[in-house]
Amino acid sequence: MKLYYHPVSTTSRPIVMLADEAGIALELEVVDLFSGAHLQPPFAAINPSRQVPVLEDGDFRLTESSAILKYVADQAGSPTYPREPRARARVNERMDWFNTGLYRDLGYGVIYPQCLPTYKRPDERVQAAILAWGREKSRAWLQILDADLLAGNAYVGGEEATIADFFGACILTLGEVVHLDYSTWPNVVRWLDAIKSRPSWAKANAGFYAHFVAPFEQAQFEGLR
Ligand SMILES: N[C@@H](CCC(=O)N[C@@H](CS)C(=O)NCC(=O)O)C(=O)O
To answer: Is the distance from CB of 91 to CB of 164 less than 8 angstroms?
Structure first.
């Protein structure tokens, strides 16, 4: 299987992590987001949405990170995507929760507008309003993650780590680019530490820390309060 990806990409990192854990040798092809290679015709022909990740398995092409994670886990027979219907439904639920709720407000509302020029609004009042809205919504999602989804659970789907945890952890750690502090939410910190202690984490995230977190180490950003 071949993955078009970028090492810093929030939505690519969990797939690389899963492949490592499941012992799948993905052929990795970097699409250089920094130079805009994803916007050029050759990649647009592969994914009209002009985004990574894209998976190719023979003549089957798949976009959307959540769908790719489920497909790869199934192909590998990975326990990180359980087959029992209710356990599987719980994983699906958590992945949708991260993807449509927390990622929208934390990633697109707080993080990207501060560190990606293409997401920074030229009008300062618009930028400030977006950050204020994103901060408030993100705090509410993090509170739910801490007090409901993770309270009494080692992982978001129960006692075993699943692809929902890989997916969610990659979204939350995007906050490290703009120095977000999650210490208000101890279950979130405990859960992130558990995911980050897996050997696959360092392998899948080395490029993210080197090329996205490190360059912004000295920069000033707004936090969650
Ligand atoms: N819904 C898509 C989102 C993919 C996405 O946001 N990819 C980012 C990298 S993390 C990207 O390619 N961004 C380039 C751009 O939008 O210009 C998925 O989950 O796969």
So the answer is: yes
Among residues 76, 111, 132, the one where a domain terminates is 76
Provide the phi-psi class of 22: left if phi over 0, else alpha when psi is between -120 and 50, else beta.
alpha
Range of the domain at 117: 85-216
Q: Which residues line ligand 1 (CB under 6 A)?
A: 9-11, 33, 38, 51-53, 64-66
Residue closest via CA to ligand 1's atom 15 equals 51
143 and 107 fall within a common domain: yes
In-domain check, residue 223 = no
Q: Where are the beta strands (DSSP E) in the chain?
A: 2-5, 27-30, 54-57, 60-63
Task: Examine the fold and report which residue of 30, 59, 76 is the final residue of a domain before the chain moves on.
Answer: 76
Cross-strand pairs, 2: 27, 56
Per-residue pLDDT of the chain (225 residues; tens, 9 = 90+): 999 999 999 999 999 999 999 999 999 999 999 999 999 999 999 999 999 999 999 999 999 999 999 999 999 999 999 999 999 999 999 999 999 999 999 999 999 999 999 999 999 999 999 999 999 999 999 999 999 999 999 999 999 999 999 999 999 999 999 999 999 999 999 999 999 999 999 999 999 999 999 999 999 999 999
Same domain, 208 and 109: yes
pTM over 0.70: yes
Asked if residue 129 lies in contact with residue 197, where contact means CB atoms within 8 angstroms, the answer is no
| Claim to verify: residue 45 and residue 128 sit in the same structural domain | no
Of 5, 11, 70, 115, which is best to mutate to test ligand 1, by the most ligand atoms within 8 angstroms of its C-beta?
11
Give the residue whose CA is nearest to atom 13 of ligand 1.
51
